[in-house]
Structure formats: structure tokens, C-alpha cells
Write a structure and sequence with these properties.
By secondary structure, the protein is mainly β. It is built from four helices and 16 strands. The protein has helices at about 145-150, 250-255, 265-270, 275-290; strands at about 1-5, 10-15, 25-30, 40-45, 60-65, 110-120, 125-130, 160-165, 170-175, 185, 190-200, 215, 215-220, 230-235, 240-245, 260-265. The strands form four sheets. The chain has a six-stranded mixed β-sheet with strand order 7-6-9-14-11-12, with no helix packed on it. Strands 8-16-15-10-13 form a five-stranded mixed β-sheet. Strands 2-1-3 form a three-stranded antiparallel β-sheet, with no helix packed on it. A hairpin with a 5-residue loop joins strand 6 and strand 7. It starts with a strand and ends in a 12-residue tail after the last helix. The model has no long low-confidence stretch (mean pLDDT about 95).
Amino acid sequence: MTVIANDFVPLVPYETDVVTLGIGQRTDILVKGTGKATDSFWMRSNISTSGCSIPPHQPNALAAIYYPKANTSAVPRSTPAPYKETSCGNDPLEKTIPVYKTTPPKTPATTQSFEIKLAANESGNTLFYVNNVSFRANYDHPILLLAKLGNVSYPHDPQWAVYNFGSNSSIRLVFTNPSNFAHPMHLHGHVFWVIAEGTGIWDGTTTRPENPQRRDVQMLQGGTKDAPGYLVLEFEADNPGVWPMHCHIAWHVSTGLYVTVIERPDDIKKLNTPNTLAQTCRDWADYSGHNVVEQIDSGL
């Protein structure tokens, strides 16, 4: 098959037999038909069984592909092509070259490091932590509305995991992951550059700095304490707002693997709040003021 785009970013086409996807990732491919008009084949999707995910009850999904003159009442007889699963990462960054070239700044305006951990809290529940904070939202206090009012500091609510990047023009995020869980990391509001990724201690080397891979979800590989997975992302601060940055696996984000990115707070105050959004907040305030809301997880 020929890969032509990742997360809607067109790529210089390249050939591969297998595409690795984490939750939330999208890849466009072209498949060239071969054989006879009477042939049929299985299209296969396999969930990792080598540690990239919790072992599923059924790891294999199949879809039947019938050519125009194939017998659609017969089951395809094609067999899977062999492949070796070597990591929980996406295709090598050296392969994924965007068609439209963009170059990040040689030096980002600011850099923030994050370490992801899995640990039990005081009540014995296992949660994910980013820089020792497990995210938990407060439905009664949306951070975007607080920021619009000029309130962008929350010293009494560290569980909101807020990182205010001020007026910086570009932002680099460096993730390290010493656990064996892989995480498809997603940033709202942006397509980011993937500067580097892998396992071990990042040595500062970047992949194709003149035109790095761009997408909005990228796998952060698992690792160990001595050789953690790492992922280095960078984006231009060209979209003022309060943006979630989180793992796209549902139970990971529901147990706290999330940080809040505040971008250009002075410009957030100038944003117009849609009437429907403001009314939703008023309706919620009325509901929560008369009902006990059971929040069963992080709130995402």
C-alpha cells in the first residue's frame, strides 16, 4: 500500500505493508488492485498483542474485499502477510515527509517538559499523573471562561494541570514516559511538528528539522525508568485559547492523563463567546445548583 497522508497532512508517498495507528490517528492510503476480476481478499486490522495494549479477547478484525466478478457468497481465502512488530511507535519520522514544507524556529520561544507516571492515589485508586498532577476538571468553572475574564492563575486548583504559555510565539513540549504503556498524544487547536520520538534519553537530535512530520496525534512509546519513551512536539502559538493536551485512550484520559494549555491569554480576553455557549453555561449552573452531579472520572 502507498501512504499519502497522516491526520490530513499530505505526505510524499511511500510504500509499506503495515501501518501502525493509535487511537485518534488517521492515515490515508492507496491500494493497487492485483490479480483477477474474480478474486477476493481479506483486509486486516490487528490489535497489538506484544505489550502495546491490554490483550484483547479478539485482536483481529476482518473486512471482505470482492472484485467486480468475485463470488460474494464465498469467504475470501487470502492469508496475512508476515510482519514483525518491533515497537509501539508510528512509522519512522524519516519516512513521513510532508509535501508542503514548513520549518519550525531554530530555537523555540519556550520549552516545557512533562513526565508521565502511573501510581495509586491516597484512596488506593490507580491514576495517571503528568508532572505529579492527575487532572480533574471542575464542571462549574470552565477554564476558557475564567481566562476570558482575565483569570489565568489557579494556585488553589493544581488538579486543573494548567500551563500558561503567555505570549510566547512558539512552544516545545517534551514528554518522557518511563512506564510500559504507549500513549497517542493529542493537542486540540493545532497541527504540531513532531521534532523527535523514540526510547532512551533524548539527546537533542531532531528529525529533518527543515520539514518535520506534522500531525495532531502522535504515539509516545512506552519505556522503562532507565530508557523511557520520549516525544518532542512543537507548534506555533497562532491560535489563542485554552487547549486540551491528552492521551487519546479513553481510560487513560479519564484517569488524569491530561494537561491544559493556555495560549496567548491577552488575546483570549478579546474572543467573542458564542451565545449558545454562554447559554449552555447558564443552563449548567442552574442544573448543578439544584442537583448533585456525580463526577466519576477526570471529567473528560
